[in-house]
Amino acid sequence: MEAISGAGGGTWHALQVRRAALRKSVRTLYIPSSSGITLYAQLSGLVELYGTRERPSQEEAFRLADDVYIIPPGPSRTLFVAAKGDVPATVASLTVPQETLHRFVDEEDLPSRLTQLRDMFPAVRFDPVLALTVRALVVASEAGADELYAQAATQFIAAHLLAAHTDGAVRSAGALSSLQLETVLSYMRENLGRPVSLDDLASLVSFSRFHFVRRFKAATGSTPYRYLTELRIDMSRKYLESGNDTITRIGQRCGFSGPEHFSRSFRRVMGCTPSQYRAMRT
């Protein structure tokens, strides 16, 4: 499969996103051995799954658009897949490192069930949330979203995958205190033009990444990534209204990893592109 770069042409450390184009003829899709969980979802078209080299299926296994193929930790294997009908299909994969799953289990004081992952998930599961998440990560990676985005997404996926197996044992979290929140927000404001990670923010208030995100959201109603993005957009608006820098330079000054990342983020928050906003304000 083709790797998709994130963070403005670099590689995300939190997870790796890949994609492959499929045609009507059956294709072998090699899946390397992994200690983490790999998710496959359809980006376009529809896909038929014919089983694995070890367990070939005699009948076609039809996958719906919101099905996700979940592969637990294990040795390498080969899938037999093909596009449904005459229209080519595209599939994407992402891998959640086992370290992230372990961290979630440890920080939530849950009994470790990572060794049982092979029995937890069927090969294919109808899961619109995961399917949408995989698709969103492909778009974000191509747009150059930064490492903070990938870390937050990986954390969400880990929680979602294990949520059905926690027996309600996940602890609820309160909000950050006023002092803790101001400490975090001050750091964000002082580092808008630099890369910021969840570890950076969580360490300021001595919480794990998982607990920090929940407490931050309880205090602000927003995730750290979204809040930081909106602060960066606010700063970029001032530059667009009063400065003569190019839009590319403004995006760099405000911490966006590339022009496309800046444009997509700005449009999502403001409803227009940076160039359109500048034209309306000047």
TrEMBL record:
The keyword Nucleus does not apply. Residues 182-280 form the HTH araC/xylS-type domain. Signal peptide: none annotated. Keywords: DNA-binding, Transcription, Transcription regulation. The keyword GTP-binding does not apply. It comes from the Bacteria. PROSITE patterns: HTH_ARAC_FAMILY_1, HTH_ARAC_FAMILY_2. Gene3D superfamilies: Homeodomain-like (1.10.10.60). InterPro entries: AraC_XylS_family_regulators, Homeodomain-like_sf, HTH_AraC, HTH_AraC-typ_CS, Tscrpt_reg_AraC-type_HTH. SMART domains: HTH_ARAC. This is AraC family transcriptional regulator. It comes from Streptomyces cinnabarinus.
